[in-house]
Amino acid sequence: MTRDRLYLFDTTLRDGAQTTGVDFSLADKQAIARLLDDLGVDYVEGGYPGANPLDTQFFSQPNGLKAKFTAFGMTKRAGRSAANDPGVAGLLDAEADAICFVAKSWDHQVRMALGISLEENLDSIRDSVATAKARGREVLLDCEHFFDGYKANPDYALACARTAHEAGARWVVLCDTNGGTLPHEVERIVGEVVKVIPGSHLGIHAHNDTEQAVANSLAAVRAGVRQIQGTLNGLGERCGNANLTSLIPTLLLKPAYADRFEIGVDAARLENLTRISRKLDELLNRMPDHHAPYVGSSAFATKAGIHASAVMKDPSTYEHVPPESVGNRRKLLVSDQAGKSNILAELERLGLAIDKDDPRLSRLLGALKDKEAQGYAYEGADASFFLLAKRILGSVPEFFFVERFSVNVERRWNERGELGVFSEAIVKVKVGAEELISAAEGHGPVNALDTALRKDLGKYQSVIEDLKLIDYKVRVFQGGTDAVTRVLIEFQDAAGDRWATVGVSDNIIDASFQALVDSMTYKLLKAGAEV
Asked: Which residues form the Pyruvate carboxyltransferase domain (predicted)?
Protein backbone atom coordinates (compact mmCIF):
# COMPACT_ATOMS: atom_id res chain seq x y z
CA MET A 1 0.00 0.00 0.00
CA THR A 2 1.31 3.45 -0.93
CA ARG A 3 1.87 5.65 2.09
CA ASP A 4 1.57 9.43 2.20
CA ARG A 5 4.71 11.42 3.00
CA LEU A 6 4.67 13.46 6.20
CA TYR A 7 7.25 16.24 6.49
CA LEU A 8 8.87 17.21 9.80
CA PHE A 9 9.66 20.88 10.34
CA ASP A 10 11.75 21.61 13.42
CA THR A 11 11.55 25.02 15.12
CA THR A 12 13.81 24.29 18.12
CA LEU A 13 16.33 26.97 17.15
CA ARG A 14 13.65 29.69 17.04
CA ASP A 15 10.69 28.63 19.20
CA GLY A 16 13.04 26.83 21.57
CA ALA A 17 14.93 30.07 22.14
CA GLN A 18 11.73 31.49 23.67
CA THR A 19 11.93 28.91 26.49
CA THR A 20 12.50 30.40 29.93
CA GLY A 21 16.14 29.85 30.88
CA VAL A 22 17.30 28.85 27.37
CA ASP A 23 19.88 30.97 25.57
CA PHE A 24 21.51 29.55 22.46
CA SER A 25 25.05 30.47 21.53
CA LEU A 26 26.10 30.29 17.89
CA ALA A 27 27.97 27.05 18.65
CA ASP A 28 24.81 25.66 20.32
CA LYS A 29 22.74 26.43 17.24
CA GLN A 30 25.25 24.83 14.91
CA ALA A 31 25.50 21.69 17.07
CA ILE A 32 21.73 21.34 17.44
CA ALA A 33 21.21 21.83 13.70
CA ARG A 34 23.58 18.91 13.07
CA LEU A 35 21.72 16.74 15.60
CA LEU A 36 18.43 17.48 13.84
CA ASP A 37 19.95 16.78 10.46
CA ASP A 38 21.34 13.46 11.65
CA LEU A 39 17.92 12.54 13.03
CA GLY A 40 16.35 13.06 9.61
CA VAL A 41 13.95 16.00 9.92
CA ASP A 42 13.04 17.65 6.63
CA TYR A 43 13.32 21.31 7.67
CA VAL A 44 15.47 23.07 10.25
CA GLU A 45 14.28 26.57 11.04
CA GLY A 46 17.35 28.49 12.18
CA GLY A 47 15.87 31.72 13.47
CA TYR A 48 15.17 35.28 12.34
CA PRO A 49 18.07 36.78 10.34
CA GLY A 50 18.24 40.51 10.86
CA ALA A 51 16.44 40.38 14.21
CA ASN A 52 19.66 39.90 16.22
CA PRO A 53 23.39 39.56 15.52
CA LEU A 54 23.49 35.85 16.44
CA ASP A 55 20.81 34.80 13.94
CA THR A 56 22.23 37.09 11.29
CA GLN A 57 25.63 35.42 11.68
CA PHE A 58 24.02 31.96 11.69
CA PHE A 59 22.56 32.68 8.24
CA SER A 60 25.68 34.36 6.86
CA GLN A 61 27.27 31.25 5.34
CA PRO A 62 26.26 27.86 3.92
CA ASN A 63 25.57 25.29 6.64
CA GLY A 64 25.97 21.99 4.81
CA LEU A 65 22.71 20.52 6.11
CA LYS A 66 20.79 17.92 4.14
CA ALA A 67 17.56 19.32 5.64
CA LYS A 68 16.13 22.50 4.16
CA PHE A 69 17.54 25.34 6.21
CA THR A 70 14.75 27.85 6.80
CA ALA A 71 14.73 31.53 7.70
CA PHE A 72 11.80 32.96 9.64
CA GLY A 73 10.47 36.51 9.46
CA MET A 74 7.51 38.80 9.01
CA THR A 75 5.71 39.63 5.81
CA LYS A 76 6.31 43.09 4.36
CA ARG A 77 5.03 46.14 6.16
CA ALA A 78 1.89 47.78 4.90
CA GLY A 79 2.50 50.82 2.70
CA ARG A 80 5.59 49.54 0.93
CA SER A 81 6.40 46.75 -1.51
CA ALA A 82 8.15 43.55 -0.53
CA ALA A 83 11.01 44.52 -2.84
CA ASN A 84 11.61 47.64 -0.74
CA ASP A 85 11.09 46.14 2.72
CA PRO A 86 14.30 45.80 4.82
CA GLY A 87 12.95 42.81 6.75
CA VAL A 88 12.08 40.88 3.60
CA ALA A 89 15.46 41.83 2.12
CA GLY A 90 17.20 40.32 5.15
CA LEU A 91 15.36 37.05 4.58
CA LEU A 92 16.18 37.00 0.88
CA ASP A 93 19.86 37.71 1.56
CA ALA A 94 20.14 34.91 4.13
CA GLU A 95 21.87 31.63 3.25
CA ALA A 96 18.64 29.66 3.48
CA ASP A 97 16.81 27.16 1.32
CA ALA A 98 13.35 28.25 2.43
CA ILE A 99 11.63 31.24 3.99
CA CYS A 100 8.81 30.98 6.49
CA PHE A 101 6.81 34.20 6.68
CA VAL A 102 4.54 34.80 9.65
CA ALA A 103 1.28 36.72 9.21
CA LYS A 104 -1.80 37.38 11.28
CA SER A 105 -4.85 35.39 10.24
CA TRP A 106 -7.21 36.59 12.99
CA ASP A 107 -9.06 39.72 11.95
CA HIS A 108 -8.99 41.03 15.53
CA GLN A 109 -5.18 40.80 15.62
CA VAL A 110 -4.82 42.46 12.22
CA ARG A 111 -6.76 45.51 13.39
CA MET A 112 -5.48 45.63 16.97
CA ALA A 113 -1.84 44.51 16.76
CA LEU A 114 -0.94 45.63 13.23
CA GLY A 115 -3.30 48.59 12.97
CA ILE A 116 -3.96 47.96 9.29
CA SER A 117 -6.95 46.95 7.20
CA LEU A 118 -7.81 43.35 6.45
CA GLU A 119 -7.08 43.86 2.76
CA GLU A 120 -3.67 45.41 3.50
CA ASN A 121 -2.79 42.28 5.46
CA LEU A 122 -3.77 40.07 2.54
CA ASP A 123 -1.66 42.26 0.23
CA SER A 124 1.36 41.83 2.55
CA ILE A 125 0.93 38.05 2.40
CA ARG A 126 0.49 37.99 -1.36
CA ASP A 127 3.43 40.28 -2.20
CA SER A 128 5.87 38.70 0.28
CA VAL A 129 5.19 35.14 -0.84
CA ALA A 130 5.36 36.02 -4.54
CA THR A 131 8.61 37.99 -4.12
CA ALA A 132 10.39 35.19 -2.24
CA LYS A 133 9.16 32.59 -4.72
CA ALA A 134 10.41 34.70 -7.62
CA ARG A 135 13.86 34.67 -5.97
CA GLY A 136 13.86 30.86 -6.08
CA ARG A 137 13.07 30.19 -2.43
CA GLU A 138 10.66 27.60 -1.14
CA VAL A 139 8.06 29.63 0.76
CA LEU A 140 5.96 28.87 3.81
CA LEU A 141 3.39 31.04 5.51
CA ASP A 142 2.75 30.59 9.21
CA CYS A 143 -0.86 31.67 9.76
CA GLU A 144 -0.57 33.04 13.26
CA HIS A 145 -3.64 32.63 15.54
CA PHE A 146 -5.31 30.65 12.78
CA PHE A 147 -7.66 28.59 14.94
CA ASP A 148 -8.85 31.53 17.04
CA GLY A 149 -9.15 33.52 13.84
CA TYR A 150 -11.21 30.78 12.21
CA LYS A 151 -13.57 30.62 15.18
CA ALA A 152 -14.07 34.38 15.06
CA ASN A 153 -14.18 34.91 11.29
CA PRO A 154 -13.71 31.74 9.23
CA ASP A 155 -13.96 33.54 5.92
CA TYR A 156 -11.05 35.84 6.70
CA ALA A 157 -8.83 33.15 8.21
CA LEU A 158 -9.38 31.04 5.11
CA ALA A 159 -8.71 34.08 2.90
CA CYS A 160 -5.26 34.48 4.50
CA ALA A 161 -4.43 30.83 3.92
CA ARG A 162 -5.80 30.81 0.38
CA THR A 163 -3.95 34.02 -0.55
CA ALA A 164 -0.61 32.48 0.44
CA HIS A 165 -1.34 29.27 -1.45
CA GLU A 166 -2.40 31.07 -4.60
CA ALA A 167 0.69 33.31 -4.44
CA GLY A 168 2.89 30.22 -4.58
CA ALA A 169 3.52 29.13 -0.98
CA ARG A 170 4.65 25.50 -0.80
CA TRP A 171 3.23 25.21 2.71
CA VAL A 172 0.48 27.05 4.52
CA VAL A 173 0.95 26.35 8.22
CA LEU A 174 -2.02 26.56 10.60
CA CYS A 175 -0.80 27.82 13.95
CA ASP A 176 -2.53 27.35 17.30
CA THR A 177 -0.58 30.28 18.70
CA ASN A 178 -1.94 30.39 22.25
CA GLY A 179 -2.25 26.63 22.56
CA GLY A 180 -5.89 26.76 23.60
CA THR A 181 -7.54 24.74 20.82
CA LEU A 182 -8.56 21.15 21.59
CA PRO A 183 -8.03 18.10 19.34
CA HIS A 184 -11.64 17.72 18.23
CA GLU A 185 -11.68 21.40 17.21
CA VAL A 186 -8.41 21.06 15.29
CA GLU A 187 -9.68 18.03 13.40
CA ARG A 188 -12.95 19.74 12.51
CA ILE A 189 -11.36 23.04 11.41
CA VAL A 190 -8.58 21.41 9.39
CA GLY A 191 -11.27 19.32 7.71
CA GLU A 192 -12.82 22.55 6.47
CA VAL A 193 -9.48 24.04 5.36
CA VAL A 194 -8.59 21.03 3.17
CA LYS A 195 -11.69 21.79 1.13
CA VAL A 196 -9.97 25.03 0.11
CA ILE A 197 -6.26 24.09 0.13
CA PRO A 198 -4.92 20.56 -0.55
CA GLY A 199 -3.65 18.82 2.57
CA SER A 200 -0.36 18.18 0.76
CA HIS A 201 0.26 21.94 1.14
CA LEU A 202 -0.88 22.30 4.76
CA GLY A 203 1.08 22.16 8.00
CA ILE A 204 0.24 22.29 11.72
CA HIS A 205 2.09 24.34 14.33
CA ALA A 206 0.73 23.54 17.81
CA HIS A 207 1.58 25.08 21.17
CA ASN A 208 1.19 23.10 24.37
CA ASP A 209 -0.72 25.35 26.75
CA THR A 210 -3.40 22.73 27.43
CA GLU A 211 -0.97 19.76 27.13
CA GLN A 212 -2.59 18.98 23.77
CA ALA A 213 0.11 19.94 21.27
CA VAL A 214 1.04 16.38 20.32
CA ALA A 215 -2.63 15.33 20.22
CA ASN A 216 -3.51 18.41 18.15
CA SER A 217 -0.73 17.64 15.68
CA LEU A 218 -1.96 14.08 15.24
CA ALA A 219 -5.54 15.30 14.90
CA ALA A 220 -4.43 17.65 12.12
CA VAL A 221 -2.67 14.79 10.35
CA ARG A 222 -5.82 12.69 10.52
CA ALA A 223 -7.74 15.61 9.02
CA GLY A 224 -5.30 15.97 6.12
CA VAL A 225 -2.21 18.11 6.85
CA ARG A 226 1.10 16.70 5.68
CA GLN A 227 3.62 18.82 7.55
CA ILE A 228 4.14 18.83 11.32
CA GLN A 229 6.06 21.58 13.09
CA GLY A 230 7.52 21.12 16.55
CA THR A 231 10.60 21.20 18.74
CA LEU A 232 12.94 18.71 20.36
CA ASN A 233 11.89 17.96 23.95
CA GLY A 234 8.90 20.26 23.47
CA LEU A 235 10.88 23.46 24.03
CA GLY A 236 9.04 26.74 23.48
CA GLU A 237 7.59 29.79 25.16
CA ARG A 238 5.11 29.41 28.01
CA CYS A 239 4.29 25.67 28.08
CA GLY A 240 6.26 24.76 24.97
CA ASN A 241 5.52 23.45 21.49
CA ALA A 242 4.51 20.12 20.00
CA ASN A 243 7.19 17.68 21.11
CA LEU A 244 8.85 16.04 18.11
CA THR A 245 10.57 13.66 20.53
CA SER A 246 7.12 12.19 21.21
CA LEU A 247 5.63 12.68 17.75
CA ILE A 248 8.39 11.01 15.74
CA PRO A 249 8.27 7.60 17.47
CA THR A 250 4.49 7.69 17.51
CA LEU A 251 4.45 8.21 13.74
CA LEU A 252 7.02 5.46 13.20
CA LEU A 253 5.93 2.84 15.72
CA LYS A 254 2.17 3.10 16.00
CA PRO A 255 0.38 1.20 13.18
CA ALA A 256 -2.40 3.79 12.92
CA TYR A 257 0.21 6.20 11.51
CA ALA A 258 3.08 3.96 10.40
CA ASP A 259 0.79 2.03 8.04
CA ARG A 260 -0.48 5.22 6.40
CA PHE A 261 2.49 7.58 6.43
CA GLU A 262 6.25 7.67 5.98
CA ILE A 263 8.65 10.24 7.40
CA GLY A 264 12.32 11.11 6.87
CA VAL A 265 13.34 9.34 10.09
CA ASP A 266 13.89 5.59 9.70
CA ALA A 267 14.14 2.85 12.32
CA ALA A 268 17.94 3.07 12.51
CA ARG A 269 17.89 6.82 13.15
CA LEU A 270 15.08 6.44 15.66
CA GLU A 271 17.45 4.43 17.86
CA ASN A 272 19.40 7.68 18.37
CA LEU A 273 16.37 9.58 19.66
CA THR A 274 17.10 9.21 23.39
CA ARG A 275 20.73 10.18 22.89
CA ILE A 276 19.78 13.26 20.87
CA SER A 277 17.15 14.31 23.40
CA ARG A 278 19.64 14.10 26.26
CA LYS A 279 22.40 15.74 24.23
CA LEU A 280 20.15 18.75 23.71
CA ASP A 281 19.55 19.02 27.46
CA GLU A 282 23.27 18.69 28.08
CA LEU A 283 24.07 21.50 25.61
CA LEU A 284 21.52 23.74 27.33
CA ASN A 285 22.61 22.73 30.84
CA ARG A 286 19.11 21.45 31.64
CA MET A 287 18.20 18.33 33.55
CA PRO A 288 16.36 15.82 31.34
CA ASP A 289 12.71 15.17 32.12
CA HIS A 290 12.95 11.69 33.64
CA HIS A 291 9.27 11.04 32.93
CA ALA A 292 9.28 12.18 29.30
CA PRO A 293 7.52 9.69 27.00
CA TYR A 294 9.82 7.42 24.99
CA VAL A 295 13.12 9.07 26.00
CA GLY A 296 12.86 9.71 29.75
CA SER A 297 14.95 7.58 32.10
CA SER A 298 11.69 6.46 33.75
CA ALA A 299 9.75 5.93 30.50
CA PHE A 300 10.30 2.17 30.74
CA ALA A 301 10.84 1.88 34.49
CA THR A 302 8.85 -0.53 36.66
CA LYS A 303 8.92 -0.37 40.45
CA ALA A 304 6.37 -2.76 41.98
CA GLY A 305 7.41 -6.39 42.25
CA ILE A 306 4.27 -7.90 40.68
CA HIS A 307 4.67 -5.62 37.65
CA ALA A 308 8.32 -6.54 37.37
CA SER A 309 7.46 -10.24 37.25
CA ALA A 310 5.06 -9.57 34.40
CA VAL A 311 7.61 -7.48 32.52
CA MET A 312 10.22 -10.22 32.75
CA LYS A 313 7.77 -12.76 31.32
CA ASP A 314 6.27 -10.46 28.68
CA PRO A 315 7.74 -6.94 28.30
CA SER A 316 4.73 -5.76 26.26
CA THR A 317 2.60 -6.06 29.41
CA TYR A 318 3.80 -2.64 30.58
CA GLU A 319 5.82 -1.40 27.58
CA HIS A 320 3.88 -0.03 24.63
CA VAL A 321 6.98 -0.12 22.41
CA PRO A 322 10.38 -1.82 22.83
CA PRO A 323 12.61 0.68 24.67
CA GLU A 324 15.54 -0.17 22.37
CA SER A 325 13.57 1.12 19.37
CA VAL A 326 14.08 4.69 20.63
CA GLY A 327 17.52 4.10 22.13
CA ASN A 328 16.22 3.80 25.69
CA ARG A 329 16.38 0.84 28.05
CA ARG A 330 14.18 -1.05 30.46
CA LYS A 331 14.65 -0.35 34.17
CA LEU A 332 13.29 -2.56 36.93
CA LEU A 333 13.73 -0.34 39.96
CA VAL A 334 15.00 -1.63 43.26
CA SER A 335 13.14 -0.24 46.26
CA ASP A 336 11.33 -1.25 49.43
CA GLN A 337 8.44 -2.28 47.16
CA ALA A 338 10.66 -4.56 45.12
CA GLY A 339 10.52 -8.31 45.04
CA LYS A 340 13.07 -10.82 43.82
CA SER A 341 12.07 -10.22 40.19
CA ASN A 342 13.22 -6.60 40.32
CA ILE A 343 16.45 -7.51 42.08
CA LEU A 344 17.29 -10.31 39.66
CA ALA A 345 16.61 -8.14 36.63
CA GLU A 346 18.70 -5.25 37.93
CA LEU A 347 21.54 -7.53 38.96
CA GLU A 348 21.56 -9.06 35.49
CA ARG A 349 21.68 -5.61 33.89
CA LEU A 350 24.62 -4.71 36.13
CA GLY A 351 26.47 -7.90 35.25
CA LEU A 352 25.90 -9.55 38.64
CA ALA A 353 23.49 -12.31 37.61
CA ILE A 354 22.82 -15.01 40.22
CA ASP A 355 20.39 -17.90 40.52
CA LYS A 356 16.93 -17.05 41.82
CA ASP A 357 17.37 -19.64 44.62
CA ASP A 358 20.71 -18.25 45.79
CA PRO A 359 20.36 -17.47 49.56
CA ARG A 360 22.39 -14.28 49.07
CA LEU A 361 19.45 -12.86 47.14
CA SER A 362 17.28 -12.87 50.28
CA ARG A 363 20.10 -11.25 52.24
CA LEU A 364 20.40 -8.54 49.60
CA LEU A 365 16.66 -7.91 49.59
CA GLY A 366 16.68 -7.67 53.39
CA ALA A 367 19.63 -5.28 53.37
CA LEU A 368 17.95 -3.17 50.73
CA LYS A 369 14.76 -2.82 52.78
CA ASP A 370 16.72 -2.04 55.96
CA LYS A 371 18.66 0.66 54.13
CA GLU A 372 15.52 2.22 52.68
CA ALA A 373 13.95 2.25 56.14
CA GLN A 374 16.89 4.42 57.18
CA GLY A 375 16.20 6.81 54.30
CA TYR A 376 18.30 5.45 51.46
CA ALA A 377 16.66 5.33 48.01
CA TYR A 378 18.29 3.15 45.37
CA GLU A 379 15.80 3.46 42.53
CA GLY A 380 17.60 6.64 41.46
CA ALA A 381 21.07 5.62 42.67
CA ASP A 382 22.18 2.74 40.50
CA ALA A 383 25.86 2.97 41.43
CA SER A 384 25.19 2.80 45.17
CA PHE A 385 22.93 -0.21 44.63
CA PHE A 386 25.68 -1.86 42.59
CA LEU A 387 28.13 -1.38 45.46
CA LEU A 388 25.63 -2.64 48.04
CA ALA A 389 24.93 -5.75 45.95
CA LYS A 390 28.60 -6.31 45.19
CA ARG A 391 29.49 -6.22 48.90
CA ILE A 392 26.83 -8.82 49.75
CA LEU A 393 27.37 -11.07 46.73
CA GLY A 394 31.13 -10.82 46.71
CA SER A 395 33.41 -8.00 47.72
CA VAL A 396 34.42 -4.44 46.89
CA PRO A 397 38.12 -3.60 47.14
CA GLU A 398 39.10 -0.84 49.54
CA PHE A 399 40.79 1.45 47.05
CA PHE A 400 41.15 4.21 49.63
CA PHE A 401 40.19 4.77 53.25
CA VAL A 402 38.95 8.15 54.50
CA GLU A 403 40.55 8.83 57.85
CA ARG A 404 38.86 12.17 58.38
CA PHE A 405 37.41 15.22 56.68
CA SER A 406 36.45 18.71 57.79
CA VAL A 407 34.62 21.61 56.21
CA ASN A 408 34.82 25.25 57.19
CA VAL A 409 32.28 27.81 56.01
CA GLU A 410 33.15 31.42 56.60
CA ARG A 411 31.27 34.63 55.85
CA ARG A 412 33.75 37.47 55.41
CA TRP A 413 34.84 40.46 53.36
CA ASN A 414 37.27 39.78 50.52
CA GLU A 415 40.17 41.95 49.40
CA ARG A 416 37.85 43.97 47.13
CA GLY A 417 35.59 44.86 50.01
CA GLU A 418 32.83 42.45 48.93
CA LEU A 419 30.93 40.36 51.45
CA GLY A 420 30.85 36.67 50.56
CA VAL A 421 30.59 33.14 51.88
CA PHE A 422 33.66 30.96 51.44
CA SER A 423 33.95 27.18 51.89
CA GLU A 424 37.11 25.20 52.50
CA ALA A 425 37.45 21.43 52.94
CA ILE A 426 40.27 19.19 54.13
CA VAL A 427 40.25 15.45 53.41
CA LYS A 428 42.75 12.89 54.71
CA VAL A 429 42.77 9.55 52.92
CA LYS A 430 44.94 6.47 52.99
CA VAL A 431 45.78 4.78 49.69
CA GLY A 432 47.60 1.58 50.52
CA ALA A 433 50.37 2.60 52.90
CA GLU A 434 50.35 6.19 51.65
CA GLU A 435 48.59 8.93 53.62
CA LEU A 436 47.39 11.90 51.61
CA ILE A 437 45.94 15.19 52.82
CA SER A 438 44.24 17.58 50.42
CA ALA A 439 42.61 20.97 50.94
CA ALA A 440 40.42 22.89 48.52
CA GLU A 441 38.09 25.84 48.33
CA GLY A 442 34.77 25.60 46.53
CA HIS A 443 31.42 27.13 45.71
CA GLY A 444 29.76 25.77 48.80
CA PRO A 445 30.82 23.02 51.19
CA VAL A 446 29.93 20.09 48.92
CA ASN A 447 31.89 21.48 45.99
CA ALA A 448 34.85 22.07 48.31
CA LEU A 449 34.64 18.48 49.59
CA ASP A 450 34.35 17.08 46.07
CA THR A 451 37.36 19.09 44.92
CA ALA A 452 39.45 18.12 47.96
CA LEU A 453 38.59 14.41 47.69
CA ARG A 454 39.50 14.30 44.00
CA LYS A 455 42.55 16.52 44.33
CA ASP A 456 44.92 13.69 45.18
CA LEU A 457 44.00 10.00 45.26
CA GLY A 458 47.56 8.89 44.71
CA LYS A 459 47.91 6.13 42.13
CA TYR A 460 44.21 6.41 41.23
CA GLN A 461 44.31 10.09 40.33
CA SER A 462 44.48 9.56 36.58
CA VAL A 463 41.39 7.32 36.71
CA ILE A 464 39.14 9.96 38.28
CA GLU A 465 40.38 13.06 36.46
CA ASP A 466 37.63 12.93 33.83
CA LEU A 467 34.76 12.94 36.35
CA LYS A 468 32.21 15.72 36.26
CA LEU A 469 29.54 16.29 38.91
CA ILE A 470 26.40 17.08 36.91
CA ASP A 471 23.54 16.96 39.42
CA TYR A 472 23.04 17.29 43.17
CA LYS A 473 19.73 16.80 44.94
CA VAL A 474 18.81 17.07 48.61
CA ARG A 475 15.68 15.81 50.28
CA VAL A 476 14.70 15.95 53.95
CA PHE A 477 13.53 12.38 54.50
CA GLN A 478 12.34 12.81 58.07
CA GLY A 479 11.30 16.23 59.30
CA GLY A 480 11.58 17.84 62.71
CA THR A 481 14.56 18.57 64.90
CA ASP A 482 15.94 15.07 64.23
CA ALA A 483 15.66 15.48 60.45
CA VAL A 484 17.34 12.90 58.22
CA THR A 485 18.76 14.19 54.94
CA ARG A 486 19.06 12.19 51.72
CA VAL A 487 21.53 13.36 49.07
CA LEU A 488 21.63 12.12 45.47
CA ILE A 489 24.68 12.96 43.37
CA GLU A 490 25.08 12.23 39.67
CA PHE A 491 28.45 12.01 37.92
CA GLN A 492 29.51 11.65 34.30
CA ASP A 493 32.86 10.62 32.84
CA ALA A 494 34.56 11.40 29.54
CA ALA A 495 33.02 8.32 27.92
CA GLY A 496 29.56 9.76 28.55
CA ASP A 497 28.65 7.16 31.20
CA ARG A 498 26.47 8.52 33.98
CA TRP A 499 25.74 7.12 37.41
CA ALA A 500 24.11 8.27 40.63
CA THR A 501 24.92 7.59 44.27
CA VAL A 502 23.07 8.22 47.52
CA GLY A 503 24.06 9.21 51.05
CA VAL A 504 21.90 9.55 54.16
CA SER A 505 22.67 11.24 57.46
CA ASP A 506 21.28 13.73 59.96
CA ASN A 507 24.06 15.99 58.64
CA ILE A 508 23.84 17.15 55.02
CA ILE A 509 27.62 17.37 54.66
CA ASP A 510 28.08 13.81 55.88
CA ALA A 511 25.32 12.54 53.57
CA SER A 512 26.95 14.34 50.66
CA PHE A 513 30.35 12.89 51.47
CA GLN A 514 28.94 9.35 51.57
CA ALA A 515 27.58 9.84 48.06
CA LEU A 516 30.88 11.31 46.86
CA VAL A 517 32.89 8.37 48.24
CA ASP A 518 30.48 5.90 46.60
CA SER A 519 30.91 7.69 43.27
CA MET A 520 34.72 7.54 43.44
CA THR A 521 34.63 3.87 44.46
CA TYR A 522 32.21 3.00 41.65
CA LYS A 523 34.38 4.76 39.08
CA LEU A 524 37.49 2.89 40.23
CA LEU A 525 35.64 -0.43 40.23
CA LYS A 526 34.18 0.25 36.77
CA ALA A 527 37.63 1.15 35.44
CA GLY A 528 39.13 -2.08 36.77
CA ALA A 529 41.58 -0.31 39.07
CA GLU A 530 43.84 -2.59 41.08
CA VAL A 531 44.34 -2.31 44.83
From this structure: 6-271
